[in-house]
Design goal:
By secondary structure, the protein is an all-alpha fold. It is built from 20 helices and two strands.
């Protein structure tokens, strides 16, 4: 990727037609990133305007555009962000402005409280993330008000922000609900809920999740968020269950990130994992931990005696 970006940088504006053609031929998130990165790199109002419109209508969402805003240094994107965050007519540009501030942890000062009351739900949700990232506890009243918002996404990010700002007691019910519901915010809700609870309460809740077949995988994933490496033997036991193996593997890697350097602890070959895994996953492309290999690794590393 860096080589391609360097080539675009050297070619400068002359590369713009080729960049657009690349996106038109394959309009994915990666191509949107390249278009957006190039437009910002060229510091061209016309190119940036084109990139914004492409991002606005992208089937996969504006993630590539947001990635380009995160990639560039704040000084490069500052003129655009200042204009976008204050654009009264275009909620998408306000969303981009706030999201760029989130990525770079920039405080837009008086604009922050204005965007918390923005008429657009995506802007309000992004602003709540920004408030939490900045640690702006002075805005806690407005964040608590947002927890009663009509929009589900806004309510969730308000709860997440409350948790990050140290008001987890107020956020806990919403965080637990979203975690169990299993939507796109489930993992971040699970992490925030575990973080907000006293350890004893967190363990009790995780235990209740694990004992229900419908939420057992959630309980296994939450267990890895407690930071307790002594649960490795228990995680290895869960790895033998196809329904829990993927989340057990994720918890294992969270607790033992050094294991990512090993090449034989996970497999994409379900046949190597066993017939039960082949029957459970069918044609799905999935990486699962090999319980026996993980056990051997744990013993070599001294984590299991």
């Amino acid at each position: 990727m860096e080589i391609s970006l360097d080539g675009i940088r050297v070619a400068s504006r002359a590369a713009w037609p080729c960049v657009l053609a690349l996106h038109q031929a394959s309009p994915g998130k990666g191509e949107l990133f390249v278009v957006s990165w190039a437009a910002l790199e060229f510091e061209s109002a016309d190119c940036v305007a084109q990139a914004v419109e492409i991002g606005r209508t992208a089937i996969d969402g504006p993630g590539g555009l947001l990635g380009a805003l995160a990639w560039h240094a704040p000084r490069v994107i500052a003129p655009w962000v200042r204009a976008w965050i204050d654009d009264a007519r275009d909620p998408f540009k306000r969303f981009l402005g706030v999201s760029a501030c989130v990525e770079h942890r920039v405080d837009p000062k008086q604009m922050l409280s204005l965007r918390l009351r923005d008429p657009d739900t995506s802007v309000r949700a992004a602003t709540l993330r920004l408030v939490a990232k900045l640690g702006r506890a002075d805005l806690i009243t407005e964040v608590r008000n947002a927890s009663a918002d009509e929009d589900q996404q806004v309510r969730y990010w308000a709860a997440w922000a409350l948790s990050e700002l140290g008001w987890g007691d107020f956020a806990d019910p919403e965080l637990r609900r979203v975690a169990v519901q299993g939507d796109d915010n489930a993992l971040s809700a699970l992490r925030a809920a575990v973080k907000a609870m006293p350890m004893k309460e967190a363990r009790s809740w995780i235990g209740s999740l694990y004992t229900s077949s419908q939420s057992a995988s959630l309980g296994v994933r939450a267990a890895g968020m407690l930071g307790d490496r002594s649960i490795l033997p228990w995680l290895i036991e869960q790895m033998g269950n196809p329904a829990l193996a993927v989340t057990a593997g994720a918890s294992f890697l969270e607790l033992f990130p050094e294991a990512r350097q090993e090449s034989d602890l996970f497999t994409n070959d379900l046949g190597a994992a066993g017939l039960r895994f082949e029957e459970y996953f069918g044609d799905q492309a999935v990486s699962v931990p090999l319980a026996g290999k993980v056990l051997e690794w744990g013993q070599r590393q001294g984590h299991i005696k």
